[in-house]
Specification:
This protein is of the alpha/beta class. It has helices at residues 3-32, 51-64, 78-91, 108-114, 140-148, 167-177, 195-201, 212-225, 243-250, 262-279, 300-306, and strands at 36-43, 66-73, 96-99, 120-123, 134-138, 157-160, 185-189, 206-209, 235-239, 256-260, 285-287, 289-293. The protein has a domain at 141-260: Rossmann fold, CATH 3.40.50. β9 (235-239), α9 and β10 (256-260) form a beta-alpha-beta unit.
Length: 311
């Protein structure tokens, strides 16, 4: 074989090798860039309560080539509406569902059965039984315990738990009670409808609110009815994060917030659906939480939690 023939052969082999590598590279790129349609079912999805959660989802959606279809529920019969949306999305062949479960018991069987048909990730609130999907949340029991560690000893306490049909609220309440004696707890309410009356009839030193939605309702109630004076001598601790709560914390009208990493929860929820679709990888994910007070709220790491920057 002459030198020129050998060079030609080597050149041809090099071209074939490069063509093969380019095929593999672009083929992998095309596989990675498959798009997914994920349905997100949230109560009152347009409210500020979900702002950081949605920012986290949108960040992950960009990276994983996901189209998010956010279903807004603001209905009285929330349980049947969630069931109906799940059925519609299953029939429309959505690639997956992210669900904030309205009622842990009432939706238990429906979620368990459908999670074996369509990839499903529950966020914040889970169901009573095991199911075929993933669960993404901060540790609700530990968040409740985190608030209890901030409460002054011998304080008389009133609690707004949020609806006890949600396991997340029950876990927070149980965690809070771990470090608090039963004698300290004077009353437990599920919402704010009778709060002012209870505060007047059964005064407490500390008010604890264990759910973001109820905490925002409390702020609105105080502002609309000019009730700030009613709580002037009351320490107020909440689980949640919103502009209203941050403002009241800055003004010294509430004492502290236990803040779950909502941005991380949204990001991991989308990531978890994609993982189930890809290789049936079902793994629960726990996100962090942070105790924020007026003293640390302007620290740089705390500011990143309250106002995450989307890349």
């Amino acid at each position: 074989m002459t030198k020129s023939m050998r060079n030609t052969l080597l050149g041809g082999m090099f071209i074939l090798l490069m063509a093969f590598l380019l095929y593999r590279f672009w083929g992998m790129e095309m596989t990675d860039k498959r798009s997914y349609r994920i349905s997100v079912i949230l109560e009152d999805a347009s409210s500020e309560r979900w702002k950081l959660f949605k920012e986290g989802m949108e960040q992950a959606a960009t990276e994983y080539h996901v189209e998010l279809e956010i279903c807004n529920i603001n209905e009285e019969d929330e349980i049947s509406v969630q069931e109906e949306i799940i059925a519609v999305q299953r029939e429309n062949r959505a690639d997956g569902i992210i669900l904030d479960c309205a009622d842990s018991s009432a939706l238990n069987d429906y979620v368990r059965e459908n999670s074996s048909i369509i990839p499903m990730v529950l966020v914040e609130n889970d169901i009573n039984d095991s199911f075929s999907g993933s669960y993404v949340s901060a540790n609700n029991r530990e968040m409740g315990k985190g608030i209890s560690e901030c409460i002054q000893k011998e304080s008389k306490i009133g609690i707004i738990s949020g609806y006890t049909s949600r396991n997340s609220n029950l876990d927070r309440l149980a965690g809070f009670k771990e470090n608090i004696s039963e004698e300290q707890i004077k009353w437990v309410l599920q919402d704010t409808s009778e709060l002012a009356d209870y505060v007047k009839r059964y005064p407490v030193d500390t008010l604890v609110i264990l759910e973001n939605v109820v905490a925002d309702e409390f702020i609105e109630q105080m502002q609309e009815k000019n009730q700030e004076g009613l709580y002037r001598n009351t320490e107020i601790w909440v689980i949640g994060n919103s502009n209203k709560l941050v403002y009241f914390l800055d003004k010294g009208m509430i004492n502290g917030m236990v803040v779950p990493n909502e941005f991380g929860m949204g990001y991991k929820a989308v990531e978890s659906v994609v993982n189930i679709i890809h290789d049936n990888q079902v793994r629960d994910e726990e996100v962090s939480y942070t105790v924020i007070t007026r003293e640390n709220m302007y620290d740089s790491d705390i500011q990143r939690i309250i106002f995450p920057i989307v890349q």
